[in-house]
Amino acid sequence: MPKRFSMPEIDSSLLLTQTLGDNELTEEVKKCRILLVGAGGIGSEVIKDLLLMGFETIDVIDLDTIDVSNLNRQFLFNRQHVGKSKAEIAAKVAVDHFGHNASVAVKAIHNSIQSSEFDIDFYKSYTLVINALDNRAARSHVNRMCLAAGVPLVESGSEGYMGQVFLIHKTVTQCYECEGPKQDSRTFASCTIRNTPSLPIHCIVWAKHLFAQLFGEVDADNDVSPDNTDPELTTSDNKDDSNGLTSTAKQQSTRDWVKACGYDTKQVFVKLFHTDIEYLLRMDQLWENRTKPKTIDYDRVVANDIEFDAIEGTSSSNGLNGSGEPNPDLKAQKVVANDIEFDAIEGTSSSNGLNGSGEPNPDLKAQKLWSINECLTIFDESIKELMKRLTDFGGNDTFLVWDKDDESALDFVTAVSNLRSFCFHISRKSKFDVKSMAGNIIPAISSTNSIVGGLIVLQTLNILRNNVHKKRNPELTTEEANKALYESCRHVYLRKVGPSAKNLISAYELEKPNPNCMVCSANVPEIEISLSFKKT
């Protein structure tokens, strides 16, 4: 980016004091050490806002790399940054353009926040932590670490036009897990869907996007191919493309390419599950801390020479539950050749999946996990059926709409998502599960992230004001100081204005801790384990 946009050298202390009207609060801001977890949609807004507000010491951590699909809503990134670390680029660009003086120090950490190297002492080194994450597991981890370290956590999230910001502090407010297990958000980063899926729902969303690319109303933002314009991927491997699929994809959209090949099942399969996966494998940075995906050989699938790993589709791929005991849902199943067959399932009239009339039981059939060969067969059949339907409806001038109650459309998404899951070592799902999980994806909206980013900074200032209040009143007890913090911060919601919601932004009293919470409650039991190393 041109240097003319860089911030001039200014007297940030004077400007801060004039803005905040409090010398002591100014000093709190300047010496505050912030850990920002996530440099994506919300995180890239927060790091800019913090610097503009006068904060000087920020560490930003993110494992992800920049995808071309991020560029329309994460404005610190440009096309030249595609393939590079989000944390490193966000830190550099933010300092170059919004760093107000030489004291600004923004450190980038390209790593997973769940790495064991980030221990309690790491968290204790910060004044506060800001969460700008998009997945439940990482949020829960940061929540527990901040509680253990006694460090305030500003939690945030956005979903379409809605967002929220709230404080989490031990003994003062509810923690992230006080209300029990959270459902995964229906909003997913495009780069996760296209490049680094880790959950079955990621593969299901990708399969729905593919349906739209092949048969539906095309949305360029929901392309399913890897980004072929990444300058880091102009390798000799790219230039020597034996089947011409990758080079063709550079010039054509997925819809145009599939039309050109006549919706040929083999060519589509090879592109999606072999060529594109090989392309992703050349994006080395993606796999530094992740398991590399694997390609699928079409001919081996046809020959029944490839299969999913043992029994999948549960929380454990070895058929055991969390206690190490045989999973009761799986103990009646066995792996036979290239398929999983049901043996003596209780509650059915037949152990072979047939009803009393000798016909397949439709409920049981929908819950059966398909073999990889079955996925290919159904992939082929559904493509032909959907293509015929598209042609009958008028061809180029019409498009199909995905409907979970449309058997062919559901078959397509189930088969495709399971094939994608195979590539990324993710447990497969039955047709029944796919139907229940395939809700509409909610798009990420840049203006929502911008507003949430501003609200996070305001919440941060409220926490620092409380620190100033404690210093001015050293006689305050811990209980009194916590009460002041509780009253100074709010649970802030952002939502669409409508008949039932007159205000764009609404603030409510923070929730008190749940006394039965197994994470933050004082009643959490302590278990003492004695180990003996004597031989028995």
UniProtKB/TrEMBL annotation:
Gene3D superfamilies, sorted: Ubiquitin activating enzymes (Uba3). Chain: B, domain 2, Ubiquitin-activating enzyme E1, inactive adenylation domain, subdomain 1
GO CC list: cytoplasm; SUMO activating enzyme complex
Biased composition (Polar residues): 225-236
Residue spans crossing the bilayer: none
GO process terms (BP): protein sumoylation
Pathway per the UniProt entry: Protein modification; protein sumoylation
Active site (UniProt): 191
Limits of the Ubiquitin-activating enzyme SCCH domain: 197-435
GO molecular function (one): ATP binding
Binding site for ATP: 38-43, 62, 70-73, 86, 112-113, 134-139
THIF-type NAD/FAD binding fold domain boundaries: 23-476
Listed Pfam families: ThiF, UBA_E1_SCCH
Annotated region described as Disordered, given as residue ranges: 222-249
InterPro entries recorded: ThiF/MoeB/HesA, ThiF_NAD_FAD-bd, Ub-E1_IAD_1, Ub_act_enz_dom_a_sf, Uba2, UBA_E1_SCCH, Ubiquitin-activating_enz
Keyword line: ATP-binding, Metal-binding, Nucleotide-binding, Ubl conjugation pathway, Zinc
Keyword presence, Metal-binding: yes
Annotated positions binding Zn(2+): 175, 178, 517, 520
Family: Belongs to the ubiquitin-activating E1 family.
Protein name as it appears in the record: SUMO-activating enzyme subunit
Organism: Medioppia subpectinata
Organism classification: Eukaryota, Metazoa, Ecdysozoa, Arthropoda, Chelicerata
